[in-house]
Amino acid sequence: MFETVVAYTTKNDGYQKNGSLQVKGLMLHSTATPGIMALEFRERFNKPGLEKSIHGFLDDACYVQCMPYEKKAGHCRYAGNSTHIGIELCEPKEWQTDAVYFAKVYENAVALFAQLCRQFDLTEQDIIDHAEGYRLGIASNHGDVGHWFPLFGKNMDDFRADVRKVLEQFREMSPAEHRRENIRSLQTALNKAYECGLSVDGILGKKTTAAVKAHLLRYQPGKALARGDYVAWVQRQLIERAYSCGKTGADGKYGKNTQAAVKRLQKTAAIKEDGIVGIDTVSALLENWE
Fold first, then answer.
1. Burial (CB count within 10 angstroms: exposed 0-12, middle 13-18, buried 19+), residue 17
2. Mean pLDDT over all residues of the chain?
3. Inter-axis angle of helices 175-194 and 229-240, nearest 10
């Protein structure tokens, strides 16, 4: 599975000027710039004077979300910008022959697009690439991803079919299985942030509970912010439940906007509204997971 980094390109003109997006579909692009990976592309886009913008870049190891999904990006020039989330796949230096890289970025793209379909109540039929967008009259005249996928025996029909398989597997999971998967991601985040040595077993047992209690997250004006993977995990859960953490999103920094989101969650969950992430708040984030 790929690492997710939320790092909004707030300096980008498109980010600052564009309005909101009513998500009706997903559009797959590829960068046609071999050798430049997701984090470097994000830096190239995070500057003024650039109208083109994108929701995210994906490579073989990392997904960088560059804009909130509810904000319109400038990824296809025409009407598709107002209806579709745009994701760019990064191409390797040897893009025509690197089968290992292609297999991994393709796998990551299937997983990401399935995740976005679940988040926005879409199906695989709501996924197109840039070339298909052009033929539909909602995107500029680009050929991606048709210049790349066929080199490795894939096309967009294959991609949609593979996304459908993931969606079907997800629908077959019980609520308990969904909860275990989310606890696994919590345990992974705690291990990365604090070297807790937790077994990634999907069980909220004594050791995981103790780790949460030992690493309380709180915002204290004038003091250094808590940072890292665990903070980002909390932020992602909040955002997915429509509790905004501010324009910087899940940036891994526990600031006042994240504290405010936590308080809103705590009010909804009828637990103490102190803005501190402890075991009660984490338990609330794990409830009703779909």
1. exposed
2. 94
3. 150
Nearest Cα residue to 67 out of 124, 112, 16: 16
The answer for residues whose C-beta is within 8 angstroms of residue 196's C-beta and 6 or more apart is: 187, 190, 207, 211
pTM of the model: 0.72
SS3 content of the chain, % helix, strand, coil (to 5): 45, 10, 45
* Secondary structure letter of residue 71 according to DSSP: B
Q: At what angle do helices 279-286 and 229-240 cross, to 10 degrees?
A: 50
Question: According to the model, what pLDDT value does residue 288 have?
Answer: 64
> Within a 10 A sphere around the Cβ of 193, how many other Cβ atoms?
19
**pLDDT averaged per 10 residues in sequence order, the chain, 290 residues:** 85 92 95 98 96 96 92 95 98 98 97 89 95 98 97 98 92 82 93 94 96 98 94 90 83 94 96 97 83
As a dihedral over the C-alpha atoms of residue 277, residue 287, residue 71, residue 73, rounded to 10 degrees, the angle is 110
Contact 80, 133 (CB under 8 A): yes
